[in-house]
Write a structure and sequence with these properties.
Elements lengths: L12 H7 L5 H7 L11 H6 L6 H4 L10 H6 L28 E2 L5 E5 L25 H12 L6 E5 L8 H12 L6 E6 L1 H4 L6 H9 L3 E6 L9 H12 L2 E8 L8 H13 L3 E6 L14 H14 L7 E4 L8 E2 L18
Parallel strand pairs: 2-3, 3-4, 4-5, 5-6, 6-7, 7-8
Antiparallel strand pairs: 1-2, 8-9
Helix pairs in contact: 7-9
Amino acid sequence: MLQRNPTSWQRPRWQQSLSEAIKDPSELLNLLELPVDALTLSQQTAGQFPLRVPRSYVARMRKGDPDDPLLRQILPLHAEELEFSGFYSDPVGDLAAMPLPGLLHKYHGRVLLITTGACGIHCRYCFRRHFPYGDANPAPDTWRSALDYIAADPTITEVILSGGDPLALPDHRLAELADQLGAIPHIKRLRIHSRLPIVLPERVDAALMEWLSTSPLQKVMVVHANHPNEIGEDAVRALRDLQACGVTVLNQAVLLCGVNDSADILSALSESLFRAGVLPYYLHLLDKVKGAAHFDVSEMSAVRLINTLQNRLPGYLVPRLVRETAGTPAKIPVRGPEPGNVISEASGTLL
């Protein structure tokens, strides 16, 4: 049986790995055999949104390569200090959709619960990098109000656990929350959004699999991989273990300049995911969060990439290209021009 209050000497290995995550940019560059002056690091942004990356994830980076696509996702650079019009601290309207602290109700039929502000890795393009986790306190005592809100609305059939990263919480707390949600008659599905099965595959351990296997709710996990280099054999095993627990596993990626803005890379990502039994779900246009403008890829370029993927891959391996816009009732599909129209590469307009 899952122990709901494990003692300190029973601390899981994944928690130890998280505690040993790299937080010093100089240490990271030293491990990667890169001179400190090889990249324009920003002490200011590192202070506001610190570096945090598991050592096992760093092991997948190419030594001596300042343009490694995994390194680019997590290293605080001077480019984050630059101000750009149209980039905001709350780009998707989370705060306006929060009827209770830590509970987001944007879309019909489902709500999102901010379970924690902690993450196993700090991605520099994170749309919640400025989120006021202190005000939207995701402590267990606030879950009661959120659970009451959910129980009072029979139109809600799905609860999404997010953060931060919900899998940064210990399993006894997650199991307790899942039990409470499972006791609400109209809740049918539990969805978990997590990057940890990708960046720290050891997080998928016996304790996690135990409570996932025993929950009566339908379970969906949306993982987050942006590049095929993130999906090694350990990640494949973790993803298959989740499926063995009855979890439907999907992937969402973010289109990032200098990371995966290539049809070859996106094709390889889809193939790597499917090898692990995971279907590509969404390819997001960058949420325009302040500090991440250097990752932005134009909509026109994104449409070209998706069109190329559609010509290369079976349809089930082509993710849906979407953007999230504050105040809309759903994510917005991004589509190319109508058949017969051609986009001018110079102007981006229809000819």
